[in-house]
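Reviewer comment 2.1 asked that we show a complete input and output for one of the modelled complexes. We chose the magnesium ion case, as it is the one discussed in the main text.
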Amino acid sequence: MSGQQAYALEITDVCKNFSGIQASKDINIRVKEGEIYGIIGPNGAGKTTLFNLITGVYAPTSGSIRFLGTEIAGKPTHEISQMGIARTFQNIRLFGDLTVYQNVLTAYQHNLTYSFLDGILRTKKFRQQEKKAEEVCLDVLRRIGLYDLRDQHASKLPYGQQRRLEIVRAIVTGAKLLLLDEPAAGMNEEESLELSQIIKDIRKDYHVTIVIIDHHMDVIMDVCEQITVINFGEMLTTGTAEEIQSNQAVIDAYLGVNDDAED
Amino acid sequence: MSYWTGIATQVGIYLIAVLGLSVLCGFTGMFSMGHAGFMAIGAYTSALLSIHLSMPIWVSVLCGTLLATLIGTLVSLPTLKLRDDYFLIVTLGVGEGIRLVIQNLADLTGGARGLTSIPGGVTIWGVLVIAVLAVVFIKLFLSTKFGRNCIAVREEELAAKSVGINIFRYKLLAMVISCALCGLAGGLLAHYLNYLTPTLFNMTKSEELIIPVILGGRGSLTGTIVAGLLLLPLPELLRFGSAQEWRMVIYGLLVVLVITFRPSGLMGNKELTLQNLKKFLAGFFLKNRGQAPDGKGDSV
Ligand SMILES: Nc1ncnc2c1ncn2[C@@H]1O[C@H](COP(=O)(O)OP(=O)(O)OP(=O)(O)O)[C@@H](O)[C@H]1O
Ligand SMILES: [Mg+2]
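Response of the prediction step:
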């Protein structure tokens, strides 16, 4: 296949079975470098499962997952992260006992190359790298609007701020691909509007590719260039916001369900 | 050496082992019930090398430390990928296993009767210096990426993996550090007491080593040290008669009290600093005047 390098992420014929349940079935997704890509679908459709497959939490039952041309399916999670994929969690997973700043500094770890001895002996290499780490972490916190909360306990932050902290933590890893699992969950209209702007800024400032799962259609339609709709583990369709909104199958399967849920 | 100096020396030695356990249990979140066994390896190795090969004690203690680290690390390797409760069970078995092996190698170790005439030379000053160095080492370690990664493993494994942390590697690192410090403490103990018996390193000892970490607050180095200084003298002070049995009752009671009233330990994950002390006192006095110190008091 030619032009492989143009894709940040290529998911080809991926299936995932959990004893009895087919959580993913023949998934084919191509995400271009620099794109913001949306994945939507009703509850239990298999969206989070897809993120878990990309990040190595599960190995796919079959199929291929490529990141910047390299096969990553089935690799351990920490290796995939080190290659440049970072994520946030739908059910927030912060380092709860640590402060906001410590959460971020910890996540920067792969960019620190000093040795154990460098650290204990406080060599110049250690001091330089730690100084740089502090600068980078505080800068990202400032840009995402968490700077003033940096000394707060992560677990004591309000819900929305915790989701933001997850995003900051993903950014400082230096990832080239960010996977955001329901970043707008629990946010009101105003907050999700702000989040849309933050997501666009992140792409611009950090030159990353972003894949977002969310149920907030306003956010998804606003920021995503391409959207894939999943239902019962299967892809329903892929297209731009306009194409998705006018697709009858989507309206039936997804938006219908969503309307019911909101009653 | 006076009675009190003796107690102080032993407390210092056991504190070194407790510091090792604070890295493993307090900061990396892996609970071990067998580290007295690794202390035993350090102690017997060092004692035997100095007796039979007439090694200077600092060399033999170093060898004991290395062997304790090596064995501790090797036996834990297969369990590090399992769940934490398996790790606990395996360490318990390994700790008791080591003690039984020592007890049954009577020709070499003196068996249950013990090993005597171990060259001395460990003084309170030597122990003090090493204990302070151990504290400094851990303090430095915790503010490197290696220490932070261990803490991340304790806090949330999946999140740690997702920021590129190889969980296995950092659990191994914590195991290496804890076994080394326990082995070191064992070696010092051998050359301080001049005799060893296997019962010095039974499961109760493993418990005594881990209790200060739990009570002091997981993730608080100062909390662990304070709890260690308070609890470690008890075995010696309550040595005679039925006091020995009461000791475990007291321990149990303390654990229940702390878990009931301060589940995160005396210090939680806070360090004892002047600033924190001031905050605490201010909060305490404000509370006594019926005000909530941090605005989190009862809301009506
Ligand atoms: N580890 C697992 N073992 C068994 N079944 C699983 C596992 N993980 C997910 N599933 C199942 O796979 C299906 C898809 O789940 P998934 O979490 O991917 O849905 P989702 O699209 O993210 O839903 P939501 O919008 O509620 O987050 C569900 O039926 C779920 O129960
Ligand atoms: Mg989900």
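Residues 124-144 of chain A form the longest helix (21 residues). We note this here for comparison with the apo prediction described in Section 3.2.
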